[in-house]
Amino acid sequence: MKGTQHFSRMNYNVRRGLREIVAPDHRVSKQEWALVLTEFGGTCAYCGATASAENRGIVPDHLVAVTDFGELVPGNIVPACQTCNDSRGNKPWREFLAGRFPADAAGRIKRIEQYIAVHNYSPRSPESSLTPDELVQYNGLVVEWEFFLAKAQELQSKVAQRRSLAANNSFKPKSLRGSA
Predict the structure, then answer these.
(1) What is the DSSP letter of 21?
(2) DSSP E strands: which ranges in the chain?
(3) Domains contained in the chain, CATH given
(4) What confidence category does residue 1 fall into, taking pLDDT thresholds of 50, 70 and 90?
(5) CA-to-CA distance for 65 and 42, rounded, in angstroms?
(6) Where does the record place the HNH nuclease domain (predicted)?
(7) What are 81's strand-pairing partners?
């Protein structure tokens, strides 16, 4: 059984956290969410399903992903079953619909575009959200994280190689094992 992938999740969460410096609005009131659900008839904007145990319910899905500075606000969310939300990942929503539900894609894209037209949203950029000094600090943090991540990945690789060699050596007869 494979591990929990904490290393890759850490990277995702740090990068997402850094983006929240730029686009901090990650909350939708219960009333706002209820209105979004009502606009889509309580169904998934992508597949049209209602909440079920099989699809693990209906959740807000970012149209502009957090990784692209999208916020959890009306105008940037649609209801999605957890199955669609998980399968979409970071794919652009139009591309996801066209690839996953080609027969229904045109109608669903039109419906989401109508929603977007009523609830205008534009993602923030670091340049438009931060002062020049803050932008320098932000960009510095991004560079520092990338450096730290590269060093951590290098160490992770070395440790994995050492463990692999040790495991392979343990299956050899003592006479064939190298001295280390």
Answers:
(1) H
(2) 58-62, 77-81
(3) 1-23+124-180 (no CATH), 25-123 (1.10.30)
(4) very low
(5) 22
(6) 31-86
(7) 58
29-46: burial string, b at 16+ Cβ within 10 Å, e else:
eeebbeebbebbeebbbb
Closest alpha carbon to 51 in 41, 36, 62, 63: 41
Q: Give the span between the Cα atoms of 173 and 36, in whole angstroms.
A: 66
**73 contact partners, CB below 8 Å, separation of at least 6:** 25, 28, 121
Give the type of residue at 7: F
Of 142, 143, 174, 173, the C-alpha closest to 20 is: 142
Task: Report the pLDDT value the prediction gives residue 11, as an integer from 0 to 100.
Answer: 85
